[in-house]
Automatic annotation (TrEMBL):
It comes from the Bacteria. GO terms for biological process: regulation of sporulation. Pfam families: SpoOE-like (PF09388). This is Aspartyl-phosphate phosphatase Spo0E family protein. One of its GO terms (molecular function) is protein dimerization activity. It comes from Brevibacillus antibioticus.
Length: 73
């Protein structure tokens, strides 16, 4: 579930950046992407918090850019 959220966040982030470059950062679609990303980040934080309370260590991840694409590892 956590990996799915990370992928969704990254996909929305890429769309948001593309729209922002094309239409400007104050375009309603760009703002909607930002809101969706914030909601997914909140879900991710809840999952991480639940895992830490249960004594499970959250899976570490790294973010890196390669050839204009972002990846999580």
């Amino acid at each position: 579930m956590r990996d799915v959220l990370l992928e969704k966040i990254e996909l929305l982030r890429q769309r948001m950046v593309h729209m922002g470059l094309e239409f400007g950062l104050d375009h309603p679609d760009v703002l909607e992407y930002s809101i969706q990303i914030d909601q997914l980040h909140n879900e991710l934080n809840q999952i991480d918090h639940s895992l830490s309370k249960a004594g499970n260590r959250k899976k570490a991840y790294r973010f890196y850019l390669m050839e204009n694409n972002a990846h999580f590892a």
